[in-house]
Design goal:
Blueprint: H1 2-43, H2 46-49, H3 52-80, H4 83-91, H5 94-97, E1 99-100, E2 106-108
Antiparallel strand pairs: 1-2
Helix pairs in contact: 1-3
Transmembrane segments: 21-49, 55-74
Keywords: Membrane, Transmembrane, Transmembrane helix
């Protein structure tokens, strides 16, 4: 009976592990891609100043620099806060959950009347 239970549960556990890893990887790449996108947006002004080929090379170069900066930023976030905590902080609502410091401790919380 235990063998049958393991036969059913192992594929499900593997599926959940794979899904969790993919979500974590996607959140990591969101940080990297956001830095890359910011650098690329800044390089678009090169199309007004230079010919097309030069501006395209500038765009490629800044995309590379942005990707490197994004990886450095994502690694720093991963080592200090954690990727999931960082994204949870970005999605949090301080007016409801209370303001928090960088360690996640509540600094102040609003009461029902709207004052703290």
């Amino acid at each position: 009976m235990n063998f049958l239970k393991q036969l059913i549960m192992k594929p499900l556990e593997g599926y959940l592990d794979l899904t969790a890893w993919l979500i974590f990887a996607w959140l990591y790449f969101q940080i990297v891609l956001s830095a890359t996108a910011i650098f690329c947006m800044l390089s678009v002004f090169g199309f007004y100043l230079f010919d097309f080929e030069t501006a395209l090379n500038i765009c490629y170069g800044t995309a590379g620099v942005g990707a490197v900066a994004g990886v450095v930023w994502a690694e720093r976030v991963r080592k200090t806060l954690g990727i999931i905590t960082f994204h949870a902080y970005l999605l949090s609502t301080p007016e409801i959950e209370g303001w928090r410091d960088k360690h996640g401790n509540v600094i102040r919380k609003w009461n029902k009347q709207g004052s703290h």
